[in-house]
Amino acid sequence: MSGRSSRVRRLVRVWDELRGRSGQRVVDLIRGQIAVVRTGAALACSTASGTIGRSDARARMAEIEHEGDAARAALVRALWRILATPIDREDLFRLSRSIDDVLDHLRDFVREADLFGPTDLGFAVEPLRAVLDGLDELEEALLRILRDPGSVTMAVLATRKSRTRVRQLAQARLTELFTGPLRMDTLRERELLSRLDAVGRRLGESADALADAMLKRSH
């Protein structure tokens, strides 16, 4: 009887996948991962603006990191059970890993800001807002996978532009720093700017992973 029930469940799953439900589930799981990372980016931005204390932000970021791990684990478990995916499984793993890397560097930014950050973190607000914009654009590109796959590659350009914006803002601030006197806070700020640039790079890698996946799918 249990064997028959197992076959029935498998047939139901196959039928759902043929109707596209599995594709929507995969997209929703990745969107869930992005939502957690966005929460982390918003927390980092609040830390930079002084809305939340640095030690409190560090404790909250540890919780967000666990949420991110759980979201990625849920996607991995689902991929073991789903028969058909909207893009290649290898590309899904690459996309998920890149999104997770964004959160890892946001965590490090908040931790380092608490450990040795300069008195004023205002320089980080605009780069972090660009990260938030890029995450929103990445989610929008994901939504197009099922409804308009041909437009995904163009949609991820907006995420790449956000990545470029993060780098431009960091470089502009570094230029300002190095034209002034060299102080301890200057070195601290430089390290945090480097961390923000790493956040932007990982965001760009997420966009590249999705664009590459869609290009492979079109061939």
Automatic annotation (TrEMBL):
Gene3D superfamilies in the cross-refs: Phosphate transport system protein phou homolog 2, domain 2
Pfam families, alphabetized: PhoU_div
InterPro entries per the UniProt record, alphabetical: cNMP-bd_dom, PhoU-like_sf, Put_Phosphate_transp_reg, UPF0111_domain
Domain Cyclic nucleotide-binding: 19-95
PANTHER family tied to this protein: UPF0111 PROTEIN YKAA
Recorded family membership: Belongs to the UPF0111 family.
Protein name (database record): Cyclic nucleotide-binding domain-containing protein
Classification of source organism: Bacteria, Bacillati, Actinomycetota, Actinomycetes, Streptosporangiales
